[in-house]
Task: structure prediction
Amino acid sequence: MSMEGRQIVHSRGVQTNMDVIDVLDVAPRREAGRRPLIAITTSEMRDPPDHRSKAEADPPRRELALGLRYMEALESTGGVPLVVPPMGLDAAEALLDGVDGLCLSGGPDLHPTAYGQLAHAELGPTEREMDAFEMALVRAADRRGMPILAICRGLQIVNVARGGTLHQHLPDVTDGEVDHRQRERAENPTHALEVAPDAQLASILGWRSGEVNSFHHQAVDQLGMGLVATAWAPDGTVEALEAPDRPFLVGVQWHAECLVGWPEHVVLFEAFIAACRSRDAVPA
Result:
C-alpha cells in the first residue's frame, strides 16, 4: 500500500472536554464507558538547556524528556495519558493497580549488559537504571495481562524483558538498502513494511504491505520467550512483534505516534485503547 500523495489528515473527532473527576478516579473497576487511563514511560534523561540555568530560573538538574506526540496520540484516540517517571518497583505495582494499559515510548539505547553482551563501539547514550525499571514494569504488566503497546525502544525493552537480545548496530548486519535513521520529518513514512498475514497486527492495521517511518540503529536479534516477529523491513529487520499468549501485547519498531494522521496507522492506537477499555484486570 503506497501512501504517496495521501493527505495527512485524520478526520475522526477528538474529545477534549474531559471530566476531571473521571480522570482522577483510578480505582481498578471504574464505570463503563469511561476513558481508559494509560501509563506511558519516559525513557530519556536530559541535562537542562542553558536558558534554564539563569539566575532567575530553577536550579539546573537532570530532567525527564518525552515528546508530546505520544500523549496527543493516546488522547486523540480516547485514552487519558499518565506520564510515568522512574520509580521503585513497589510504587510501580501500585501504579499498575490504577491504570488500564501501558505504553512504552522510544528513547536511548538499552545497555547491552541487560542481555549479556559487551558494549559495541557505536553504542549510543544509555540509562541503565531506566532500563532496569522499564523491564520490571513490563514484566509486572505482562503478569497482569495488561494491554501493552511498545514503540521503538519500547519494543526492544519488551524483547529483552522476555529474555531476547538486540543487534546493537544495524549497519553491521544489514546491506544498507534501508535507511533506518531517516532524515525526513517523522510524519513522513520512508520505507516499506511487510506484515505477517496471520498476525494480530495485520488484523489491526487492515493491510499487509505499507510504509513506516524509521528512527533507530538497534533492532531485535533473538526473540524473547513467547514472542513472535510479525513485520519486517525489506532488509529483514524485525519491525514488529507480539505475544500470542496475551490479548494485546504489540511492539512496533517505527514511531507510530507520529503517524496517527494517517488512517492506515491511527488504527493501531485505536485498537490499543479499545483493549485497555475492555480488559478485565488479571491479578499479579
About this structure: Residues 34 and 101 are 14 Å apart (CA to CA). Residues 128-144 form the longest helix (17 residues). Residues 36-278 form a domain with the Rossmann fold fold (CATH 3.40.50.880).
